[in-house]
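ARCHIVE CARD
Drawer: 12
Card no.: 0347
Subject: one protein chain, sequence and derived structure
Cross-reference: see card 0346
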Amino acid sequence: MPPAVVLVTGVSRWLGGALAAELAADPAIDRVIGVDTVPPAPEVLRRLGRTEFVRADIRSPLIGKVIESASVDTVVHMNISATPAGAGGRVSMKELNVIGTMQLLAACQRSPQVRRLVLKSTSAVYGASSRDPAVFTETMQARRVPGGGFAKDSLDIESYVRSFARHRPDVGVAVLRFTNLIGPRIDSLLSGFLRMPVVPTALGYDARVQLLHEDDAVAVLRQAAMGDFVGTVNVGAAGTVLLSQAIRRLGRVALPVPEVAMGSLGRLTRRGALVDWSPEQMRFLNFGRVVDTRVLREEFGYRPRYTTGEALADYARTVPPVVDPQLVAEVTGTARSAVGRVAGGITAVQGLLGDRRRAAPPVPGLRAVRDA
């Protein structure tokens, strides 16, 4: 049975607005209410359709009045900030993420009409370290627990959501752990990083990156709001790319720097308003992260339309290259061929010398000397 009244937090951002627009276009849903602290941009507002926008702060008790007065039965929580700069500083970011979620959950717990809660979480809760497994399943925990920032906030938020589920077992709770999102329209942390003409990377590291196209993200959120899946699910596309491959395919220039300098470089990019990367996100650039998506395909019932490589290619259409990727591929191929020819020549010489040694006649008197 489809929901009657859906409340979506964070509709001023692209993903929240796209989801609200999808739900509002469904005639089976009576009302869609979009909540955010700031009004949507004109282009976002135009596509919201019949979504009713309410300017409210989820940190305020006002959110409880909105849920109660509108008889909301489904809540999709997406108003979680990933960058301190976007939230007005780390203190404001933590208040919005953690305190705001606590207020929202308290309002849901008091409302008998609420029957479903969907949380947009992140695979960053698994952390990133050299001890990580090849892939993370939903039952695994971080080998190195994130100590702060967006990842730590997300861990706390998931903990509060699990507590809510214990107190309201009648509410179906779905926690969606998204990998890095990318696409022509969404503005994510990773897309901002890869948009820089010169992309700094940690010397000696080449992280595996798993992506999810923006259209698949919207489809998964819509299915979670409309369906009956309960539990935690990793949401990512098939396949991975190395960070170096992603940089080359986008026509960017990689700048390998010593690992000890990455922290200072991250602070410089934040001060220059280029990219707002936390230490946890910098570690992701070193080690990467890949999640298992069996539950997404077999239990949740969704198979992403785009693979990781296809999602990256679709994003690449909107990013003018600094260096022609074809030229990079040709130079790389030429270099590899040259190395292969040199290696083949060395192997042939070694084989020829070995044959000559084996075919050489014995030196007279050598055996007698050895025996002596």
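Annotation on reverse: Residues 54 and 209 are 37 Å apart (CA to CA). Residues 325-359 form the longest helix (35 residues).
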